[in-house]
Amino acid sequence: MFKNLLIADSGKGHVEEMIRMLQDIPSFREARVNLLHVVPEQNTAQAADHRSDGQSLLDGAISRMGLPSGNVNALVREGDTKQTVLKVAEELNSDLIVMGSRGLGRLQSILANSASQYVFQLSTRPMLLVRDDLYVRHVNKIMVTIDGTGVGDDALKTACDLTREIPDGQLIGVHVTRQDLAPSRGGRSKADEVLDTAVQRARSFGVEMKPVHVTGADIGRTVCSAAKETNADLLVIASQDRRPLVARGLVDLDKLLGGSVSDYIRVHAPAPVLLVREPEQR
């Protein structure tokens, strides 16, 4: 589970509410919390005032989130928010980044210089994204996407670890195909086999997972619809998007403007999204 969190707090949105909800999960209560606020680079005369304002904002956030002050590392940094979040995550070796989002679409995000979209696209670390327009609930029902890949297995394990710590927590595994698959001789389709394997893997982690197979031409839209229909409180997804390190010097416009499933879910999911990335060594 996550032991070293980096929370990028801008003083608005629902991130703080989400963190309060996550305090119900024992491992989150025990995790080291690094709370970051980034202020623009200023001249010497203005820098002290901005850093003081940033520190006051963090002090208020710590109080509102109910975090034990002795377990919080409050950081005020100057610079560009999106670059600074990535840099601090590397410095601290954070195992989860938590950020808020305005829920802008791909083109809007580029034009608005969206920090959360940039980090979502380029971070190699798991990221929890909480949109400003969502109603944040206590996490009880978790949905995870099942695709039978290595990073998909990582997402399933993460979802199981979370579910196991939630009293009466429920886990739903959704597998999407673009069309119904013909059953094999044994009457089982490839989708059935993928979900059966995932159910067994979840059981090995001590969790009973409800398997769901849905079809839809647009995978991202279909996942979001399934999350809405099941009233999921948290959506865990795996991403195999191109290696982020290749794009650090230049935002990957093909992915940002193209048909990235994870990016569609980022904008349209009816619940906070926990993105699990494929590790760099793979």
Write a structural description:
This protein is α/β, with parallel strands linked by helices. The protein folds into two domains: 128 residues, Rossmann fold; 98 residues, 3-Layer(aba) Sandwich (Rossmann fold), CATH 3.40.50.620. It is built from eleven helices and ten strands. The chain has a ten-stranded mixed sheet with strand order 3-2-1-4-5-10-9-6-7-8, with helices on both faces. Strand 7, helix 8 and strand 8 form a beta-alpha-beta unit. Helix 4 crosses helix 6 and helix 9 packs parallel to helix 11. The longest helix is centred in the N-terminal third of the chain and has 22 residues. About 10% of the residues have low confidence.
Could you provide a short overview of the structure?
The protein is of the alpha/beta class. It contains eleven helices and ten strands.
